[in-house]
């Protein structure tokens, strides 16, 4: 009989968002009047319209498919050159890196890439992730067998969890034990923290001297407002020998439903076979795309490329400014109501400390019951997220403003 | 240092299409006048415009993304219900199967699915494929370690190759040794052969009594013109307990550049752990999509659904009729010139036997040199493809007609 991938059976049930839904549903069942009133600042999905530049480019691309002369069939598995060139020009060369077109791989988004990258890695690598963290990094490693079993207290055996706390300014500390693959996310989901040039330099130097691979998730780089913060890890010298970078058009261009992103896998990057032979990851990643994919949808790639046009860049800036104004309003509202807030200055997420003695889920319940507002309990992202909640800027302005008003009336004493 | 997936290093270099390119380039270098004159019936990529129904639906979907009220963010990872319902109604219920919406998983195409399906299978399954065969089935298994090394004579150790020859009417025979996963493709690429109801019943019965999984690739089902030929394996009783079906909008709807397809993974389908616990593949496949994907692009799914509208179905029929008329012309031209032709009656590919004593590559060279036409040498699809070449219907009619004319003047004696 056909054998299944037993690693899947180690996966703990997805808990966070189903539990949020369960609590909201239960609350609305007893408070139906709150239904229309509910404000959701819990999700990481964008709400504002897709930039016109992207829409017009996509429609033109669809029209081209309507004529035999301009029809496009199978595209290049690694992505169209015009998009790879635009990425290099605007995301890399403009930041002073030496990354080249052939090091860019177009995908349908970062979530897919996080999993696909593991296909080219071998069994037996030890991974390290920040805590709290976007759960996909670990779940995809569970599925490929790079972890042990789920632990009763949360997390998986064999994974090094690196605490991000207010004590270390939400910057994970260098591992003291041996690690092969490290996930870094900056600007961070969920904490909204950013890695400075000094932080990233420390990590790149560590990875180079420890022959480790950094998977750098920069899905939120468009929200960086502090000019001193690197947007790409390749702004750090030597990163092209130790890092893969994941980028997404989901949050800057509003592409969560359109689906496009990319990875950068430099040609200088190497891994090893068990017997010590060095292998270029770029060769494996290229072969992966050639064998497993026929490339990303033609109109989608045209839409993504249009985000780099003059109009597109203006619209992306307006979109990200809109969300950054949202997060400013949310951050300041939390602060005025006496809460301590982290993040939200170079990221669309504010990471809010619950009042003393209040747990993540208690804060969630109080805000739902008293304010009819939904946030994301920090403990859902890992053990170090306990005692925090995440507020997302991805909402219409009117909802954000009402959220801010209602925050003033929350009586935190009620839950302690 | 990070370990790489060493199975990738077993992959033999992709040989067929690069070698075709090399020979064409070399010929044109010495015969530049043949450049404009060259006719390519070698590739499997569509050439005719995308149906209007799909284009209009895609543009409407893009417009919807331009308004906050109709904006769509993250979609369901398994696909939108409207598309899954249309598939069930038109591809399954209409054929009398009992497959349900929740058994349909929308993807960006069959090539991706062929590889992704292996993610939910364990190490140690023995696979069987037809010979000749679409190379992706085996290559993806090589990459996950389900095969041994490449063999000097072609193919990989540990894979059971099932010959498809004129002696067995290009229907693979049931394996006599133990096999866990069998790939069947009907209508077949490259031979254009189809599996009858009797053939499929034999295979389903075998799979059920041997606890094997059939991966049934029906990417070309829209080209079936003989009413007695099953379009879906689920038309055979019991197939829902032993088969996954892959479908694509690439060839029926001209979606090779748009990218959409689907798999059907029935809830009744089971695999096993090493210690004999039975596991539903549907659960694993669901978890795979939830963790690895945010679903297929919104406008793309809208375009695919439009292929099932009344207009869409009419356009798909016109498109496939166009290619079927092409293949009729090509088939008859080959026959008039004295060649023996298989396939091409329920498939867009004709599988042509080379004249006695002529090899696949010799036939390729003669046709290129004398007729300035490009075909695909059968040996590129496996050892049993030697002595054949594939002619593809995916060309504009004018090219097909010129191809047919030129075939008359080929002097086969020149190459023996």
Q: What do you see in this structure?
A:
Two copies of one chain form a homodimer. Chain A has a seven-stranded mixed beta sheet with strand order 2-8-7-6-5-3-4, with helices on both faces. A four-stranded antiparallel beta sheet of chain A has the order 11-12-15-14. The first copy, chain A, is globular, with a radius of gyration of 22 Å. Chain A has helices at 16-30, 52-64, 81-92, 110-116, 136-144, 197-209, 281-292, 298-306, 310-336, 360-371, 397-407; strands spanning 39-40, 104-107, 127-131, 160-163, 181-185, 213-217, 243-248, 261-264, 270-272, 278-280, 340-343, 349-353, 373-374, 376-377, 388-392. In chain A, helix 6 links the parallel strand 5 and strand 6. Helix content of chain A is 34%, strand content 14%. Chain A has eleven helices and 15 strands. The mean pLDDT of chain A is 96. With 416 residues, chain A is of the alpha/beta class. The N and C termini of chain A lie far apart (55 Å). Chain A has two domains: 14-43 and 312-415, Aspartate Aminotransferase, domain 1 (Alpha-Beta Complex); 53-308, Type I PLP-dependent aspartate aminotransferase-like (Major domain) (Aspartate Aminotransferase, domain 2, 3-Layer(aba) Sandwich), CATH 3.40.640.10.
């Amino acid at each position: 009989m056909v054998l299944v991938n037993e690693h899947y059976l180690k996966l703990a049930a997805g808990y966070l968002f189903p539990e949020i839904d369960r609590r909201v549903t239960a609350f609305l069942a007893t408070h139906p009047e709150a239904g229309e009133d509910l404000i959701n600042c819990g999700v990481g999905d964008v709400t504002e319209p897709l930039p016109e530049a992207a829409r017009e480019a996509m429609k033109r691309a669809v029209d081209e498919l309507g004529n035999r002369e301009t029809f496009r069939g199978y595209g290049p598995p690694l992505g169209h050159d015009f998009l790879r060139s635009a990425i290099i020009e605007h995301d890399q060369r403009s930041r002073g890196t030496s990354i080249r077109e052939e090091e860019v791989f177009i995908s349908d988004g970062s979530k897919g890439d996080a999993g696909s990258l593991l296909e080219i890695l071998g069994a037996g690598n030890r991974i390290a992730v920040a805590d709290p963290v976007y759960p996909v990094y670990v779940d995809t490693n569970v599925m490929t067998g790079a972890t042990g079993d789920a632990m009763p207290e949360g997390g998986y055996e064999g994974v090094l969890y690196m605490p991000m706390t207010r004590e270390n300014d939400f910057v994970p500390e260098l591992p003291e034990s041996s690690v092969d693959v490290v996930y870094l996310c900056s600007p961070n989901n969920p904490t909204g923290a950013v890695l400075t040039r000094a932080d990233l330099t420390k990590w790149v130097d560590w990875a180079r001297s420890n022959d480790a691979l950094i998977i750098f998730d920069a899905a939120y780089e468009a929200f960086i407002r502090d000019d001193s913060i690197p947007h790409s890890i390749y702004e750090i010298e030597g990163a092209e020998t130790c890092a893969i970078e994941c980028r997404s058009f989901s949050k800057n261009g509003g592409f969560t439903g359109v689906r496009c992103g990319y990875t950068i896998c430099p040609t200088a990057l190497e891994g090893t076979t068990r017997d010590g032979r060095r292998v270029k990851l770029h060769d494996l990643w290229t072969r992966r795309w050639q064998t497993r994919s026929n490339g990303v949808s033609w109109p989608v790639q045209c839409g993504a490329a249009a985000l780099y046009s003059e109009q597109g860049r203006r619209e992306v800036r307006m979109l990200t400014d809109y969300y950054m104004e949202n997060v400013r309003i949310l951050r300041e509202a939390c602060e005025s109501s006496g809460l301590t807030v982290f993040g939200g200055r170079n990221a669309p997420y504010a990471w809010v400390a619950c009042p003393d003695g209040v747990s993540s889920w208690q804060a969630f319940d109080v805000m739902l019951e008293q304010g009819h507002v939904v946030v994301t309990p920090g403990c859902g992202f890992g053990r170090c997220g306990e005692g925090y909640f995440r507020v997302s800027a991805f909402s219409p302005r009117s909802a954000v403003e009402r959220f801010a008003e209602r925050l003033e009336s929350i009586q935190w004493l009620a839950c302690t």
